[in-house]
Amino acid sequence: VPLYQPVVNGREGTLRGVEVLARWKQPHGGFISPAAFIPLAEKSGLIVPLTQSLMNQVARQMNAIASKLPEGFHIGINFSASHIISPTFVDECLNFRDSFTRRDLNLVLEVTEREPLNVDESLVQRLNILHENGFVIALDDFGTGYSGLSYLHDLHIDYIKIDHSFVGRVNADPESTRILDCVLVLARKLSISIVAEGVETKEQLDYLNQNNITFQQGYYFYKPVTYIDLVKIILSKPKVKVVVE
């Protein structure tokens, strides 16, 4: 089932979108961690039907509250390498887009680095087709997986999502902070926007705001929530942890 982790404007505290996270709901309540089943799904080939099911559920749920979503609301879904190279991937994404009643939403394809992605002409072409059809392309968990820098060179990437392992060591580990500083410089030189994941403390929030990282997500703002709880958040028109400078 899908859970949703809100993405906020870190300076204003306003809701800007969500990342869709897969969870395996147990019969007697509670959820199984994705770390326990996503790798198995990838190895067994079940990751594609699992993601397809998520896409269908997300479109149905978002359409039910379409009139309440802010303009330009981001909806991000993770796609594994094995799904991206599947022959039906482009058509699935276009059908996903067409299933939304709102046309001003930003649908974000988050390319994960859990598996190596063979960047060839076919891959570049299919991502370009999706980009031309209004999709936003993001590189998830940047800096933790395979060939992140080569992806930036070869693919049309709109956003990089800074992994929580870097954000979590801001100010506590000078070396990690310097590495993050370099990533921010690189992204700006390439005109790539940034989303910071795993924001958990005021110190991390301050660092990100000082470096003009607008989009942020993490437990400092919201943990991943069910659809029902997301609806409550949206209807409350939240401004969380507003920073006054």
UniProtKB/TrEMBL annotation:
It comes from the Bacteria. The keyword Kinase does not apply. InterPro entries: Cyclic-di-GMP_PDE-like (IPR050706), EAL_dom (IPR001633), EAL_sf (IPR035919). It is an enzyme of class 3 (hydrolase). GO terms for molecular function: cyclic-guanylate-specific phosphodiesterase activity. It catalyses: 3',3'-c-di-GMP + H2O = 5'-phosphoguanylyl(3'->5')guanosine + H(+). Residues 1-238 form the EAL domain. Keywords: c-di-GMP. This is cyclic-guanylate-specific phosphodiesterase. Its EC number is 3.1.4.52. It comes from Shigella boydii. It holds the Pfam family EAL.
